[in-house]
Design a protein that fits this description.
Blueprint: H1 3-16, H2 21-27, H3 33-46, H4 50-56, H5 62-72, H6 90-93, H7 98-113, E1 121-126, H8 133-146, E2 151-156, H9 163-166, H10 175-179, E3 189-190, E4 197-200, H11 209-213, H12 217-228, E5 231-236, H13 244-252, E6 254-260, H14 266-278, E7 282-289
Parallel strand pairs: 1-5, 1-6, 2-4, 2-5, 6-7
Antiparallel strand pairs: 3-4
Helix pairs in contact: 1-2, 1-3, 3-4, 7-8
């Protein structure tokens, strides 16, 4: 058998085991069919794992291993620079960091306290503009999708939306247009890098955001979304800019408050919590974010 035939045989062997580390490395282009034969030979001679053999040969690094392991266990994430999303989407680009461990802890609490009790949607709101609520909502949506939950992130900030920039969604119709009867749910964008994540952008910025969110057809829209998705997160304008958050809270029934360290005043958090309760909704929890 020639060297080329050996390489092809090794390639076919790995392809047949398409869920193996070797098969995934080959499929992703991390190794070539020619190198696959070298790796298999070392693996057999030393009795080590395929990934370890490939590393010893200098063909891949630890980051490559982590990425294919994530695919093997249906836990998608991206390498730095991969994709066209915001670099601040740490759940996508740095999923094993302490920041994302904290996000997963928040996800676990929300699953236990809210979504496991039959709830399907939640409003995420900050106090002031720049508190980081939109970015937190985006990262939270990613970790929910990584759990295998069919997740939808809705940009209900009809004043200063951010999700289209975070996820690099082309400017087009979105939530406002759906509520105005000028678009259907086909304007929802599936985020290709994450199997279970979709985003509904804000759409055309209306002159009357609070009134638009208060329309009776919003209840029907929310019911539709809840029937299609396991988790629907609404990112809404900061509470200091209007009463949009209270309108959304009445629709979803629950609110997660985002406060920024050394910036948000506790008095404002308490005031918002009281307003939410007065509107018949529940403050499911609050998170403190810290960034420069």
């Amino acid at each position: 058998m020639t060297q080329t035939e050996l390489s092809l045989a090794a390639s076919e062997k790995l392809k047949r085991a398409d869920s193996s580390i070797g098969g995934l490395l080959l499929e992703s282009g991390k190794i070539t069919p020619e190198n696959a034969e070298r790796v298999l030979r070392m693996q057999k001679e030393l009795g080590i794992r395929f990934g370890e053999a490939a590393q010893r040969l200098g063909l891949i690094n630890e980051a490559d291993i982590q990425q294919v392991l994530a695919r093997q266990f249906d836990y998608p994430y991206l390498q730095p620079g991969e994709g066209s999303y915001s670099p601040h989407l740490v759940a996508a680009y740095d999923p094993f960091s302490p920041q994302v461990e904290t996000l997963r802890a928040v996800r676990s609490q929300l699953m236990l306290r809210w979504f496991a009790r039959g709830r399907k949607s939640l409003t995420v709101v900050g106090i002031d503009r720049g508190d980081g609520a939109s970015l937190f909502a985006a990262n939270l949506a990613v970790v929910f999708s990584q759990l295998g939950e069919h997740t939808l992130l809705v940009d209900a900030n009809l004043r200063k939306p951010a999700q289209h920039s975070i996820f690099n969604i082309p400017g087009k119709q979105g939530l406002s247009d759906v509520l105005a009867g000028r678009a259907d749910l086909d304007v929802i964008s599936h985020v290709g890098s994450f199997v279970d994540l979709s985003v509904l952008g804000a759409g055309t910025l209306p002159p009357n955001p609070q009134e638009l969110l208060s329309r009776s057809n919003f209840a029907g829209l929310n019911a539709q979304l809840e029937s299609k998705y396991d988790v629907t997160l609404y990112d809404v304008a900061a509470s200091q800019t209007g009463l949009d958050a209270l309108v959304l809270a009445a629709r979803t029934g629950g609110v997660l408050i985002v406060a920024r360290k050394n910036k948000t005043h506790m008095g404002d958090v308490n005031a918002l919590a009281e307003q939410v309760a007065q509107n018949g909704a529940v403050v499911v929890g609050s998170v403190l974010v810290d960034f420069k």
